[in-house]
Design a protein that fits this description.
Blueprint (H helix, E strand, L loop, with lengths): L7 H9 L15 H13 L3 E2 L5 H8 L47 E5 L3 H4 L12 E5 H7 L14 E4 L5 E4 L10 E4 L5 H14 L32 H13 L4 H14 L4 H4 L3 H6 L12 E8 L4 E6 L6 E8 L2 E6 L3 E4 L7 E10 L11 E4 L11 E7 L5 E7 L5 E2 L3 E9 L2 E3 L4 E2 L3 E2 L3 E6 L15 E3 L11 E6 L2 E6 L7 H4 L2 E5 L15 E5 L8 E2 L2 H4 L6 E4 L6 E6 L6 E6 L4 E6 L7 E3 L6 E7 L2 E7 L1
Parallel strand pairs: 1-22, 21-22
Antiparallel strand pairs: 2-3, 4-5, 5-6, 7-8, 8-11, 9-10, 9-12, 12-13, 14-15, 14-25, 15-21, 16-20, 17-18, 17-19, 17-23, 21-27, 23-24, 25-26, 28-29, 29-32, 30-31, 30-33, 33-34
Helix pairs in contact: 6-7
Length: 624
């Protein structure tokens, strides 16, 4: 199509559609991967994740072609970057109703294209339906692109396999310095920046999960189509990053991207930071790495040992360019962290383990191994062995929610956890793509997953940790639902491969207070049943009721207290003392607190109301 000036009304609407005030708070002064991680925290918080089937209608809000020769007030035609011809009339155009499954030629219809191929994340939610890189494109070009990466194609005619009507093409890769020699899809120059900023959004949005995705780690990297390199910070192969930086520079942010960013924000409640601030691309990935491996971290010890986990702590490497640490369990890499402590979980009781830590820097050079920390897990402990589902809410319409609780005794990384649901089909049962969790849940914290259409009287969408219309949150009460760690069932609701209507339909189930362990076989005796739409005491950290429910056996004094809080009772058996504020945040922890004394120091703690938690018993006190 012929490009024309935007109508005045659109320019005016953009002027008022700025980034929400405070959205990027905390980014000032940050550079490199520290900035990337902060942006991840911002754009991953409080997202609304829609169902894949919702996207067809949403494209009428996000992807109408109002930027070339269409009248902005009445066009119903979609903008397809695979077929758009900026300098003249398009060969074909589509409305949102012309979506098809497959095509034998260009111009027959469109379908939903994952700019980052589905195979990267195994078609799992929330990645599966993220509007920032799932776009409407011609069905035939989409099919032929397959899972080939975007890239620079050779100009040698014999190695160009497809030329398309808008001059985009599929050819042999000519990306400088990249080992991959297979096919790439090269978009036209008009949209190369759009592609780059979409892929870099993916790298930021899913930091913390990138290492669990399918990435370039095959025995033959020359034919591996995935440019991800398995790192959480850099994300892509260096040669591929260089190309994306080039595309971001040569094709600046367009009005179309700005408007689309605002419209997707209205639907998903997050933004593409590289459209709001394209200079951040170079600020993050333009850093130079040195050739010197970092110094060894030292003083690795176990600060807490239990039956199913151990908490490790170490002194940091002295190098300024260290960006993280790799943790090895019996010689096998089991975790990475930016911190100098971590809880390693899913251990086996009464089992010996050896742990070491290595530092890594901007160039992914590794330090030598730290000292070995030898740990033998306990035979048993007072904690839950894993997360568990504590509430199941099935109400009217879209009132569907799940609460999950952590009483494991340590923070839990959610990257390998997922919700799975089973649906019937022609007399058989199947599991659609799961919904993957992300981030961290603290010990004694509960979090809620809601359907975006939920309208509970006591809990709002904005309060939920996860909001999704993925299949797992469209249950009707007849389905089997489970919480998984990787491929292992942790906790189950309902009976697999049968209808559960009589048990789970139009009912709220609350795990009994006496139950604090997951169960991979559903037992209705573990649950209290309430009426449809019941939703009291959802989410958050330990409530006052829960904290003080079992506080017998100890007495504390004085209360209010100034400096030292004394405890009467069988204190010699107490393994852990914690001071918790009224929001549920743990602000102080002490192991074996009464080994040689009877008091807990509260000096330096601000005035206010707190809980003193002694193992699983707690008392409320006031600090003066």
């Amino acid at each position: 199509m012929k490009k024309i000036l935007l109508p005045i009304i659109l320019i005016s609407s953009y002027i008022t559609a700025q980034v929400p005030a405070g959205y990027y708070n905390g980014t000032a002064g940050l550079t490199g991967y520290a900035l990337k991680s902060k942006l991840h925290d911002i754009i991953s918080d409080k997202n609304v994740n829609w169902n894949y089937s919702d996207l067809q209608d949403y494209y009428n809000q996000t992807d109408l072609d109002i930027y070339y020769d269409h009248n902005a007030s009445n066009t119903t035609l979609l903008l397809d970057i695979y077929s758009e011809i900026p300098s003249g009339p398009d060969a074909y155009e589509y409305t949102s109703q012309q979506m098809i499954g497959s095509a034998s030629a260009e111009g027959q219809g469109w379908n939903r294209e994952h700019m980052m191929p589905q195979s990267t994340f195994y078609s799992n939610y929330p990645m599966y339906s993220d509007l920032f890189y799932v776009i409407p494109t011609d069905a035939r070009i989409n099919q032929l692109r397959s899972n080939y990466p975007y890239g620079i194609s050779t100009t040698t005619p014999s190695n160009i396999y497809y030329n398309f009507t808008n001059s985009s093409k599929i050819g042999k890769s000519a990306i400088p310095n990249w080992v991959y020699t297979g096919r790439v899809y090269e978009p036209i120059d008009e949209f190369k920046g759009d592609v780059a900023r979409s892929l870099l959004y993916f790298a930021v949005r899913y930091e913390g999960k990138l290492g669990t995705f399918n990435y370039n780690n095959s025995a033959n990297p020359t034919s591996d189509t995935n440019p991800l390199d398995g790192t959480e910070e850099r994300a892509f192969e260096p040669a591929y990053i260089a190309m994306l930086l080039q595309w971001n520079q040569q094709d600046p942010v367009s009005q179309r991207e700005i408007d689309r960013n605002n419209k997707v924000y209205a639907l998903q409640k997050n933004r593409n930071p590289f459209i709001d601030n394209p200079g951040w691309v170079n600020t993050i990935w333009g850093q130079a790495a040195d050739a010197i491996a970092p110094q060894t971290p030292s003083n690795l010890i176990s600060t807490q040992n239990s039956a199913y986990f151990t908490t490790l702590s170490w002194s940091p490497s002295s190098d300024a360019d260290v960006i993280g640490y790799q943790v090895f369990q019996n010689g096998t890499l089991v975790a990475t962290t930016k911190n100098t402590s971590i809880s390693i979980d899913h251990l086996t009781p009464s089992t010996a383990y050896n742990f070491t830590v290595k530092a890594y820097d901007n160039g992914y050079l590794l330090s030598p191994d730290s000292n070995i920390a030898s740990v033998t897990t306990l035979a048993s402990d007072i904690y839950a062995k894993d997360l568990y589902v504590s509430k199941y809410l099935k109400g009217s319409s879209n009132n569907k929610g799940i609460e999950i609780t952590n009483k494991t005794g340590h923070p839990v990384n959610l990257s390998d956890y997922r919700l799975s649901i089973q649906f019937p089909s022609s007399g058989n049962y199947y599991f659609p793509a799961p919904y993957e969790l992300e981030g961290t849940v603290q010990n004694n914290e509960s979090f809620v997953i809601l359907n975006p259409g939920a309208n509970f009287s006591c809990y709002t969408i904005s309060q939920a940790k996860f909001v999704t219309a993925a299949p797992q949150m469209t249950f009707t009460g007849s389905q089997y639902l489970e919480l998984r760690y990787k491929s292992t069932t942790i906790d189950a609701i309902g009976i697999k491969s049968q209808s559960n209507t009589s048990t789970l339909s139009n009912v709220s189930l609350y795990r009994k207070a006496s139950v604090n362990q997951p169960n991979n076989i559903f037992d209705l005796n573990e649950w209290d049943s309430y009426a449809s739409n019941y939703c009291q005491d959802l989410g958050g950290t330990l409530s006052t009721r829960e904290l003080t429910a079992s506080n017998s056996g100890f007495a504390i004094y004085p209360n209010p207290v100034y400096d030292n809080l004394y405890v009467n009772g069988a204190t010699e058996k107490v393994k852990t003392a914690q001071i918790i504020d009224v929001s549920g945040k743990v602000i102080y922890t002490e192991k074996d607190p009464f080994k040689n004394k009877k008091n807990i120091s509260v000096q330096g703690i601000p005035t206010g109301m707190y809980f003193l938690k002694l193992d699983e018993k707690a008392h409320q006190f006031i600090k003066k």
